Amino acid sequence: MHITLNQIKKIVGGKFQGDTALLKKRIKRISINSHDIQKGDLFIGIKGEKFDGDMFASEALKKGAVAVIVASKQEALKNKIQVKTGREALGKIAQYWKAQSKIPLVAITGSNGKTTTKEMVASIVSTHLKSKKKLLVSQGNYNNDIGLPLSLLNIEKTQKCAVVEMGMNHKGEISYLSKIARPDVAVITNIAEAHIEFFGSKKGIAKAKSEIFEGLKKGGIAIINRDDDFYSLMKNAAQTKNIISFGLDKKADVYLYKTLKNISHIRTPKGQIDISLNLQGEHNLKNALAAIASSIALKIPLKTIKKGIEAIKPVQGRLEVKKGLNGAMLIDDTYNANPESMKAAIDVLSNQEGHKILVVGDMGELGKKAAQYHASIGTYINKKKISDVVGTGPLTKHTINKCSGDAKWFSNKKDLIKYVKSKIKKDSSVLVKGSRFMKMEEVVKGLT
User: Residue 383: CB partners within 8 Å, gap ≥ 6?
Assistant: First the structure.
């Protein structure tokens, strides 16, 4: 960054206390981590559930920070800008910084597939630009009211495009993020039960996800899932004629025409594109359709879109194929879980040849109907040809109880791993999935 401390004071609407000569100082970098402070940085104190960043402001100054932004009244603290909250200040600075840039920005939200779609769009755009350095991509799960602003602060003059992800767990969060980022292209991958605990219904989730269009630039393009039950709601929320829909439904602007010998033939307003996708599952094909629609919105040629999308490799912990014990195939889908993504993963396992083992853990943030959702997964498994089902976690007990056939529940992962090891054969396909808090990657480690 190259912005003066005085400019930052005005942007955040804060009160400065300290050496006024510093107000002319240019800030090159902003950090919220006192351990990460370099000489000349600006430190912002962020209050979290388990910590208060303001308590590390003094340490940041000692390490060479020019000044600090804090909400708490620490009278002894010098060279500080006093604000209402550090989060709000971070958002205001990011909003200002993004506004200085003219690069197009693609913002992606949805209950499932956000990260995969983001990586697909990023691969296509970097192929188009012939350089990864010319593209800003939000990293990992930097998709909330802290992560997204921090990503936007990394925008540089040399970059030609930005692709970011927006997550949520409460109403108004996507609206806030969208108004900071001001996207040129806003994407909703789908609506599912993820975080339903905070929204009460899928319609509530659809309304919250549709907030992404509130920050859409004038003349911006909305990318919407035509197959989704809430397509009309999302389309109305977009309030723009510039819509590109995608889906398996032939009414969509970008749709799957047919698949032959692992080649998907896709129809688009710009002509047909034939792709060979390196990711498993129909849901990933839908993610690819969303990425293609987004890339068309960016006016990228179909030939480049094909090249970029075929270069995609699985994201870590998302249907990532690994070599398991006894030469078995292990599918690591431990990144996270909700009812829709769990069913999609079960479909992937069901389509494998030979002996199949499904290992599942609890799904989080499902509210009062959590037990019901877990039981419904058991009913869904019964429709599939899966040899063995193994589970852990108190809620997964409802899944196992609903399963007919060979299904076992374990109170701990150690016993679960021991049991699965006794079942694995050379022709086995093992899929492991659960919500983040379940740490199902420990099972993956025990089976590889």
Answer: none
